[in-house]
Design a protein that fits this description.
InterPro entries: Adenylat/UMP-CMP_kin, Adenylat_kinase_CS, P-loop_NTPase, UMP_CMP_kinase
Number of strands: 5
CATH topology: Rossmann fold
Family: Belongs to the adenylate kinase family. UMP-CMP kinase subfamily.
Largest sheet: 5 strands, parallel
Bound molecules: adenosine-5'-triphosphate, the ligand Nc1ccn([C@H]2C[C@H](O)[C@@H](COP(=O)(O)O)O2)c(=O)n1, magnesium ion
CATH superfamily: P-loop containing nucleotide triphosphate hydrolases
Catalytic activity: CMP + ATP = CDP + ADP; UMP + ATP = UDP + ADP; dCMP + ATP = dCDP + ADP
Strand content: 5-15%
Cofactor: Mg(2+)
Organism: Daucus carota subsp. sativus (Carrot)
Distance between the termini: 14 Å
Amino acid sequence: MATVVDSPNKEANKSALANKKVTIVFVLGGPGSGKGTQCGYIVQHFGYTHLSAGDLLREEMKSGSENGFVIKDMIKEGKIVPSELTIKLLEQAMLENRNDKFLIDGFPRNEENRAAFEAFTGIEPEFVLFFECSEEEMQKRLLSRNQGREDDNIETIKKRFKVFMESSLPVIEHYEAKGKVRKIDAARPILEVFEAVKACFTRGDIKVNQL
Ligand SMILES: Nc1ncnc2c1ncn2[C@@H]1O[C@H](COP(=O)(O)OP(=O)(O)OP(=O)(O)O)[C@@H](O)[C@H]1O
Ligand SMILES: Nc1ccn([C@H]2C[C@H](O)[C@@H](COP(=O)(O)O)O2)c(=O)n1
Ligand SMILES: [Mg+2]
């Protein structure tokens, strides 16, 4: 079941993850499509560890690190933070965790994210969950989320939608060509969406993937 490059990797610019057997599912979809919500249910039912790239960036921003200002500006503008930074945060979180199954939520957000992650870790996802939802519905959800996120305002939401269409959809297309995308109608009520999600984790056709 594991997705791994299992030969020892001695190159300096490669991640220690290349030697750790991990299964990864990327969870993608537009802003407000319900990625975080569904990851909560998947964790409870299937024992994965949930890592949200956005949450990791927000924590880094609040930690007072020197990268904080860069992250804050980019999130406010709905832009995508340089891959190196996001990948380091994901790598650290995975290496610190004893679990071997990870849901990576909101990553890869663009082709640069995707290619850099694969080159650095040698890992390809088991499959990719893609939550499809109209902008109208996503906008409604984001404006009533009430979690105090600085990017949940109409100006930034419009920018995030544009970045999603221009930069994130090509990532879905990349994995679609590899037969790895599981599309979910995310416009339905939360528990109905989860029924469809559950089916993706119990299909029994998950294979070992090596780069
Ligand atoms: N199927 C659903 N129907 C109605 N509301 C939903 C549904 N799924 C999630 N929500 C609500 O929509 C809001 C956004 O959901 P969530 O935070 O899971 O989205 P997300 O895809 O992680 O967004 P982001 O990319 O901005 O982090 C939350 O308030 C959540 O409770
Ligand atoms: N791979 C990523 C993921 C997230 N970000 C930044 C830009 C997003 O607008 C913001 C919030 O992410 P979310 O919580 O909505 O998944 O975080 C990024 O630059 N790169
Ligand atoms: Mg989220």
